Amino acid sequence: MKIGVIGTGYVGLALACLADFDNEVLFVGRSADKINNLKRGILPIYEKGLDEIVKRNLEKNKIDSTTDYERLKDAEMIFICVGTPSLSDGSIDLSQIKIASESLGALIKNTNDYKTIVVKSTVVPGTTKNIVIQALEKASGKKAGADFGVCMNPEFLREGTAVYDFLYPDKVVIGRYDEKSSSTVTKLYEFYGNKVPTMTTDLNTAEMIKYAQNAALASRVSFINEIANICEKFEVDVYEVAMAIGLDSRIGPKFLNAGAGFGGSCFPKDVKALLATAKSVGTNPILLDAILEVNKYQPHRMIDLAKQVLGNLRGKKIAILGLAFKSDTDDMREASSIQIINSLLMENATVKVYDPQSIGSAKKIFGGSIEYCSSKDECIKGADLCMIVTEWDEFKQINLSEIRCPIIDGRRVLNPLSVKQHGIVYKGIGWKNN
Ligand code: NAD
What we know:
Layout: E1 2-6, H1 10-14, E2 24-28, H2 32-39, H3 50-59, E3 63-66, E4 77-80, H4 95-109, E5 116-119, H5 127-140, E6 149-152, H6 162-167, E7 172-176, H7 179-188, E8 198-202, H8 203-233, H9 238-246, H10 267-280, H11 286-310, E9 317-321, H12 336-346, E10 350-354, H13 359-366, E11 371-372, H14 376-380, E12 385-388, H15 393-396, E13 407-409, H16 416-421, E14 426-428
Parallel strand pairs: 1-2, 1-4, 2-3, 4-5, 5-6, 7-8, 9-10, 9-12, 10-11, 12-13, 13-14
Antiparallel strand pairs: 6-7
Helix pairs in contact: 4-5, 8-10, 8-11, 10-11, 11-12
Bound molecules: nicotinamide-adenine-dinucleotide.
């Protein structure tokens, strides 16, 4: 199948995997520089294994990239994978969706073949029907369901494991507007075989499933963080508690790691968007509000622990290990590290940072106000305190014999007892001996 993909971020680029299954993939982006790089196999993001897939299929001429929507005229199916960030009030910014839909509508106006438009971006219920379809119909002068098809196919991949998640998803959800396009999308995903459950729903349900899923995951993180803060008061290790409750088959072990709070391009913005949408339709989403409130507090817990160790932070050298919102990605959107570093700077501390992938992103955020290091050892050397903020594997290998300063572990990367055996002061979110 000839497939078009609008948006070359984490979700759009993961669709490069489709080129390995007898499809041709044409990426459409806004930035000529990024598109030229993509043509040479240079990706604008870091995602494990993705560059090999792109390079392999570039060589076979099964992947191409352009800034010109006209080149989509031969595409049978076009995925919309543009960003849906938060507006300042937390509600969803649908401007990228609207512009992409209008551009596609203009393309459909001048083509006679039936195209299936698939919304993959995360959008609040009602968006595909009220924004995408309306823009497509207005710009094309044609009718959805008759002249072109529309589906909403939410994406559940995690950054850091995007390729694996795309190839081995837990489920596929296809929200359909018309029968023909949902059959075409179902056919595209036939390569999953019958191992992956597929649910076909209406458009609003598919949109809602994505939000409900992210809210459920974020609520587990905020729940265990709240429990962690209580645990500390009773000299209880929250990781022991989480391990035990996770053994209950009704609960399960995942997303129960207490720490410095969740970040990234999805959980914060999606919970905020669901909250704003819920309020706009007159419901009172108390729990969604609480998920965000608990999360806002966690980076401050890291600062509290730093003050417990050092007292006044003025003039203290703080080494930050990890900037990305999670390991195996370079994404710093809404990362806890940003709030932690800003708070440290407000306290007039000196901040040195190291991250295996995110130094470039950090420079755009902090400029010259912090020091950037090219290794964890360089970062820790001479520091008064080390804070671990991202759970990168390489931080598990820190040579404790070389460490001269206290450690605050925001992701429980280290074993507290081994750290203490080396005579190092250890503090962590939900650790019993803080
Ligand atoms: P991103 O910001 O990394 O990428 C979006 C891309 O779309 C950018 O490169 C932008 O330049 C491009 N774009 C915007 N308007 C365009 C236009 N008119 N024409 C061509 N390109 C255009 O976003 P992302 O992380 O890939 O997420 C995309 C969507 O998928 C969002 O709605 C997000 O919530 C959702 N999602 C993200 C993830 C994730 O882990 N990142 C997972 C599941 C779903």
